[in-house]
Amino acid sequence: MNTIVPVLTCATLLVTSAAAGTLGEAEIAQLRSEVASITRSFERGDTKALIDQTHGSLYELAGGREAFANATQQAMEQLLQTGAKFVHSEVGTPTQTYLAGDEEVCFVPRISIMEVQGKKAKSTTFMIAVRRLGSNEWKYLDGAGLRKHPDYLRRLLPKLESGVELPPNKVELL
Questions:
Q1: Tens-place pLDDT, residues 95-143
Q2: Stated pTM of the model
Q3: CATH class for domain 21-173?
Q4: Cα–Cα distances in Å, from 145 out to 3, 5, 80, 126, 141?
Q5: pLDDT by residue (tens digit) across 30-50?
Q6: Domain ranges, ordered by start, for the chain
């Protein structure tokens, strides 16, 4: 009985340390490229590309894919009506991966500068990249929405391992 506790403790530590993974250079390049493409689509007002690259958990939260598509189109129209201009965007290096049931998740930092009615704002946020274990196809969630509702992360990814720290997520006027 005395040897079972240390063995179980070691096994738990090994499983926990295996939960976080490291991405290879090709995967990092793929993620950065895809997030940059999504950002350009957003800047052009291309909602179809955004919807196609969105992780299915957001469809469920929005009431289905069609409801999500409608909400995305309406939000884009409202944004374009403000006369918003996209001045600059950059994509950072993805974090390590974390387990979320039969999926893995990482966070891809993103910085955008927009100008609306002569005022500039810098958004420091992230995309959440999600893929099935063993797959090369990533789907995405925009982390900006977690700024006001951080509890949504667990609603979108209920099996995400605990203790995951999110990247910075803020907006500042320039």
A1: 999 999 999 999 999 999 999 889 999 999 999 999 999 999 999 999 9
A2: 0.84
A3: alpha beta
A4: 47, 42, 19, 10, 9
A5: 999 999 999 999 888 899 888
A6: 21-173
